[in-house]
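Appendix B, record 7
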Amino acid sequence: MIVIKTKEEINNMRKAGIILASCHQEIAKLIKPGITTDEIDQFAEKFMLEHGATPEQKGYNGYRFATCASINDVICHGFPSATALKDGDIVTIDMVVNLNGWLADSAWSYAVGKVSDEARRLLNVTEQSLYKGIEQAVAGNRIGDISNAIQVYAEAEGFSVVREFIGHGIGSQMHEEPQVPHYGPPGRGPRLKEGMVLTIEPMLNVGAWKSKLDSDGWTARTIDGKLSAQYEHTLAITEDGPFILTKL
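Structure tokens (predicted):
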């Protein structure tokens, strides 16, 4: 069942989104060769707690961290670790903020030092593909219109779109209906209505779209070891169009 949110509930989620976006803004200043994703994870948790929020991911199905930190060929759900980031790496930091029971979810990919032209283009196209999807997130359209806009743009730019991990509804629960794939034909799926709140979170790969899972049961990598990037926002469907809740 798709849960329609009131304007007050969307406003509560927006407050969580502001904390999340502010945290990403501060993380961007920390990203450099030599820092560890453990340190970033500890910073993010401390930032949330200092702003009256909690990390929703921590404890979710036994997950032990406040963030997911996915480096280079890791698509998503990478564990923060004590391994230092290196010049030329790319890293995705994904987190969910809980503020008074209302959630916001956003992932950003970051360049570490000087990255290759290929990595830079992957980052740029992945971010733009997110916004191509958001443009379609208007009342009256269907989920498939979001999905198709992302896939058409990404593949025209020469990148593949991950199938196994998708966006979703969100509210007081991290994963609600509807599911939001980042691929597929337009005009399919649930019709978008005012008051729906979704995450759109395309993951694009330099090589093949398929993934493989590490033995930890969480970390998903590209099947061919090539780079992957992700950008994600939480947004509400409003009478005035898509309202991004996780952007300052």
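Remarks on this record: The chain is about 30% helix and 25% strand. The helical segments are 7-30, 37-50, 117-135, 143-156.
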